[in-house]
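User: Can you predict the 3D structure for this chain?
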Amino acid sequence: MSGDAEIWGVHFESGPAQAAGEDPDAYRYAVSPGYFEVMGIPLIQGRVLNSRDVAGVPPVAVISESFAKRRLPGLNPIGQRLSIGPINGYTVVGVVADVKQTSLDLSPTNAVYITAAQWPQFADNARWLVVRAQNDVSALTPVIRRAIWSVDKNQPIVRVASMNERVAVSEARRRFALMLFEAFGVMAMVLAAIGTYSLLSNGVTERTREIAVRLAVGASRRSIVTLVLRQGLALAGLGVVFGAIGAMIASRALVTLLFGISRLDSTTYVGVIALLVGVSTIASAVPAWTAARVSPSIALKSE
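Assistant: Here is the predicted structure, written as structure tokens:
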């Protein structure tokens, strides 16, 4: 989520044949032993990089799960040989779970991990020190700075941030857009509740004589409340049906703003429908209560 990335073409000696110049691109991570444990990246198959993967020994690599499935379908990735850019001779020793490098909404990307000691030809422009903290990360920042400068007092420390801060920054634009949708949704619900209340209240006023006659000939107040509530919930039910269909169609435009959840998530739809029915019930309850308090004498006087 930092915005920094190293992308190289990766060529496998095995697997489906690739045309010249069509080797897949992959994020290349030059890491030290312990990186996967600190970042919480699960091991799927084989082993992770360790302290024995140093310069002078046969170079090894770890690849992401989706990369292995796409590039080596039906093959055991362990032991497969690959090249990263112009550097040959890497052997796959492990497969790890996918990570999201640039944004939470993007599909898993190809990734290959090696140790920095076995990347001999080019120097990395920037390096990252990753620390897993159990307490407040801000309290550890001075300690981390002193630890780095105790090794090299001239080493520049450009950026210090927690993973939560990185994710928040990368998703700020999406969060703002969704907050606008949320605000519009709340406004729409308030307007719908006001509209339902106004419609039913006006209907009760126009049907005052009818309701009074019903009461005069023996209708119970409960039946009057039920009558008005039924009318209000029928309108709400009709709105829910058309609204749900419209939401399913309109949600296609929200796909790029969502991650980790389907645009047709059943829990969301059930929750929103329940909320709308609850709001409609409350908006209908006041006119229903008013209708139940109509005096039968109104009907007699009007006759």
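The chain is about 45% helix and 15% strand. The two ends are 77 Å apart (CA to CA).
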